[in-house]
Amino acid sequence: MLQLQKVSLEIQGDIDFEILKNINLEFHEKKIYVVTGPNGGGKSSLAKTIMGVYNPTSGQILLDGIDITAKNITDRARLGIGYAFQSPPRFKGIKVKELLKMAASHNPEKVNICDLLYDVGLCAQDYLNRDVDTSLSGGEMKRIEIATVLARNLKVAVFDEPEAGIDLWSFQKLAETFKNIHSKYDTTIILISHQERIMELADEIIIMSNGTVSAQSERDIILAGIMNNDSCACSAKCVKGVGQNAECVG
Ligand SMILES: Nc1ncnc2c1ncn2[C@@H]1O[C@H](COP(=O)(O)OP(=O)(O)O)[C@@H](O)[C@H]1O
Ligand SMILES: [Mg+2]
């Protein structure tokens, strides 16, 4: 459904820097993908390239077989590609119900905003008239943002580190929320995350490092690889005297 073919992204500056290198990826309908890997590996840049915030230096992006490489963020949003930010925006003087109505404005008859709030784990009657401001906790704000993404009835929704800035309790609820929406909605979900609980939701896991896809496979295969990767990088002899730090010799 969404394909990236030989996508590279170079940032021009004092020194030209290739952030994404020859990325080939294919995302299918109704699946959950988790993109993980070390900081600086290129995950957020990949998300922004899918969204149209960055246009690739070379390669193609196809949506349902149609080349959307040259389309900007607004065009891609219209085509059904949406992004939820690492730090959710807050709005002055707008209520939760107004925000959701705005998000659902292109298909109002299909969207019931009370159902949306329930789907993200919030009691609609408690939240419809709340202001979208700092009176909402980080976890509540994330749920409302997820609800706005669902209201848009997207083909592809990208969430960049949804776990950022929320406590453990809210995080566990958030993982359940993604599970719930996956079973109820047709949207393909791309989650960028370091969290094992989020990885467990994936149909497929993609590992990015150094601007490349270093592994992509079904969840269980990747998770088994991560769990079993306990071999010692130090092949030399390891010496530790009593009360001393260990030392690699030879
Ligand atoms: N607009 C930019 N200008 C220059 N360098 C950038 C820009 N965006 C990202 N980078 C660099 O590209 C690399 C990948 O960043 P990013 O995609 O944010 O990684 P991740 O999300 O995996 O932590 C990093 O080295 C980062 O500093
Ligand atoms: Mg990032």
TrEMBL record:
<dbReference type="InterPro" id="IPR003439">
    <property type="entry name" value="ABC_transporter-like_ATP-bd"/>
</dbReference>
<keyword id="KW-0547">Nucleotide-binding</keyword>
<dbReference type="GO" id="GO:0005886">
    <property type="term" value="C:plasma membrane"/>
</dbReference>
<keyword id="KW-0813">Transport</keyword>
<dbReference type="InterPro" id="IPR003593">
    <property type="entry name" value="AAA+_ATPase"/>
</dbReference>
<dbReference type="InterPro" id="IPR017871">
    <property type="entry name" value="ABC_transporter-like_CS"/>
</dbReference>
<protein>
    <submittedName>
        <fullName>ABC-type transport system involved in Fe-S cluster assembly, ATPase component</fullName>
    </submittedName>
</protein>
<feature type="domain" description="ABC transporter">
    <location>
        <begin position="2"/>
        <end position="235"/>
    </location>
</feature>
<dbReference type="InterPro" id="IPR027417">
    <property type="entry name" value="P-loop_NTPase"/>
</dbReference>
<dbReference type="GO" id="GO:0016887">
    <property type="term" value="F:ATP hydrolysis activity"/>
</dbReference>
<dbReference type="Pfam" id="PF00005">
    <property type="entry name" value="ABC_tran"/>
</dbReference>
<dbReference type="GO" id="GO:0005524">
    <property type="term" value="F:ATP binding"/>
</dbReference>
<dbReference type="InterPro" id="IPR051120">
    <property type="entry name" value="ABC_AA/LPS_Transport"/>
</dbReference>
<keyword id="KW-0067">ATP-binding</keyword>
